[in-house]
Description:
The complex is a heterodimer. By secondary structure, chain A is mostly helical. Chain A is 77% helix and 1% strand.
Amino acid sequence: MLGYALRRLALTVPVLLGISVIVFLVISLIPGDPATAILGSFATPENVERINRELGLDQPLPVQYLTWLQGVLEGDLGRSYSLNRPVLDEVLERFGPTLILAAAALFLCTVLGLAAGVVSAVRQYGWADKLITLTVLVGISTPSFFLGIMLILWFSVGLGWFPTGGMYDLFGDGSPSELLWHLTLPATALAVVATGVVARLTRSGMLEVLRQDYVRTARAKGLREGRVILRHAFVNALVGIVPIIGIQAGFVLGGAVYIETVFQWPGIGRMLVTAISTRDILLVQGGVLVVAASFVLINLATDLIQVALDPRLRRG
Amino acid sequence: MAASSLPRRTSAWARLSRNGLAVVGLAIVVAIVGIALLAPVLPLADPDITAPANRLLPPFSHGAWLGTDQLGRDMLSRLVWGARVSIAVGVAATLVAAFVGSTIGLVAAYFGRLADNVLMRGVDMLMAFPYLLLALAIVAALGPGLLNALLAIAVVNIPFFARSVRGATLGLVQREFIEAARLSGYSNARIILSELLPNVLPVIVITMSTTVGWMILETAGLSFLGLGAQPPQADLGSMLGDGRNLVITAPHVSIVPGVLILVLVIGINLLGDGLRDVLDPRLKSGALSRPVARTAVAEGRTSGTGDKGALLEVRNLRTEFHIGQRVLKAVGGIDFVLQPGESLGIVGESGSGKSVTALSILGLVPTPPGIVAGGEIRFAGRDLLRLPMRDLQDIRGNRIAYIFQDPLTTLNPLMRVGHQVTETLIRHQGLGGSAARRQAEELLDAVGIPQPRTKFDAFPHELSGGQRQRVVIAMALANRPDLIIADEPTTALDVTTQARVLALLNDLRRQSGAALVFITHDLGVVSELCERVLVMYAGKVVESGPVGEVFAAPRHPYTRALLACVPVLGEPERALDAIPGLPPPVDDLPEGCAFAPRCPLAMAECRRGEILLARTGEGRRSRCIRWMELGDG
């Protein structure tokens, strides 16, 4: 297992490099003069010259990339011109709230999705299955940004149960319960689509596994149905579902852009939207790079969980 | 199970129209797309004319059914025109992604090697990004705008097409017709376009139908963030974005476009699911039925009488499979009685109903589609078919234990083998963890597994086939059952292992005094292990009696034919007479004797009425009206 983990960890290096290449190349997509585009309204001739020098835009592309990569590895993601501070500082400050929001949504979609999928499969064609299947269909078709607005309308404005946005109260104590109170609606809105996807695939995974011979063996042993379903069928189905949950992490991290905007959550998604409209390209680049790198680590984690569940995968 | 349900050839359209939900989806999509297409000729107000006096009118106002927005523009008109933009952009993004992605997939799979490596690694890199984030980065570089949003969303969807098309193409490039096209000197481009593309088209359509909904959602999302459609142009997303700040004073401005996106995407997804089921039945969601905890039993009452001393008494057992309109009578009314400690062999060809008989005893025939249509199964005087579930579970694995055919698939691959043994000890004897472990190690030792303490922690894939089956035997014997049902327990093993596992099973059974039902098509094994034998054919017992007598002097032509198939050591010149013909399908049994079509002795009477199982001697029965002509030996 440890050997596998190390080999798998080594495999993330080329992926991270590939990501860095794509993020780097984004700048070359900029139509016209990148320096002017990056600087926008800050584009004085001195600034243009400075950024050309900083980014090495007069060098050939591979040299530019290596220079940039060296900077990245040293923690230098450039300077945000709209905020006038290092990109890394801003990104790290914004990353925490996004991580909290994404983790909460991922937790919700995993727990609810798995539970709904298992119930749906075990009660195939029963009323619970039909209800869940229908709910899932609506769920995966819901625009999360619309759902977020509706949640605010009903639960914040209408019922007054939850705040309309933000992460903490303006004059709050910053306690975990206060955070949880602010987190509930955005995490729910962010989790809905992912929950539907997880439920759907859990259902089909369970249906597949429940037909296997070892489930019949478990029943032939006289085990109670709860144990047959959970210990024998579910664990086997989970091996196929864990990577799906990893993919959902990507959707949740991306979807956070909408939800943070709707709920004024001080995370990286909202930062990106603002940065795009102020054309602060370096800030966008830094934000995307950090979130994408964290997604690679999440995928590494789901791979390791999968292998921990299934000893047969350890040999590969 | 012998029978498979053949898909009837019907047109894709007919199959789609039978799927109620898909039809609903189609209706929604056609309605919304139709209205959007007709926007220029519909009697709608100009969507861009502002009327400050009429701003934020609520829905159902005079002259504005859906109200007006913050500039007094007619919401209905804006909705129709906005839907037009959203659908056009979503569909265009889908087409771009499908074109580029499919090209990548086709080229990578067709040329393989370097092209495959380079292209697919690139696709992997795109997949390594959180979906929406890469789109944002692209929009950031290109600048906000509807066309740029479209391109960004198309790019992030390319991997889905590239991967599925490559997968489908890989299966095709090795096939003969591609090889033939190559040898005929067709150009690569021509092979890809005229030979490969038509064959992967269903995959492309399926991927389009599953992604177009997302793409509409995501382009609307970018517009919602202000990164897509720029004023005065509006799509559903930008309308929603405009309405967001008014949600408290005028919720309809955001609810109206939001609901339309929701309904449109629901319609697309319903249609997409239906389309996928039609084009690729293997992926059909929920096509797989899972077996429930216990075989369904048709209504019926137990007779309440039986052979008092018998361990197991099966009376007129009928087990059927109901698949669509077909009823497969896998077991068509069989009877047998088993005394404590007795061993009974059940033999017959595949599909004769012997395994289904065995599985019926503890309700392990998969339902759906299986159902016990009638009969009784009494175990120690209790009717197992009508026993409450919890009582049946107390008997399963405890008083009656199974040994199934393939130990690789019958053991849980993710559970250490030792735990699979202790599980049944804990369940039925209420042992604690360490006591169960000790006993399981003893059991593993008793079934001849070397180093049982180490092997306890092994996973099934770490053991050899023979060792796996020994684990299964240990599991079966764990609670000292009164009856062991072994269903072809050695068929999956190699020949030398077979003999050792059988000897072990026989020894342990004799020591424990358990009764045995042994299912096999190997007559040699039956004569070694069993005292009595049932010969089954097409779901019925055709002959029964003591093994020695039946094999020495069969009283049914089918038994005789089966015996003629057995090779005899030292008689290599003996012809192995395979039985000509095939067993009849069990949903279409002929009248009279089911074996008559293959029987050398069949005559007119054999094809009329029902042939009964008649007593032919002490403890012997035969379902043949000409048994006396078979002679004795």
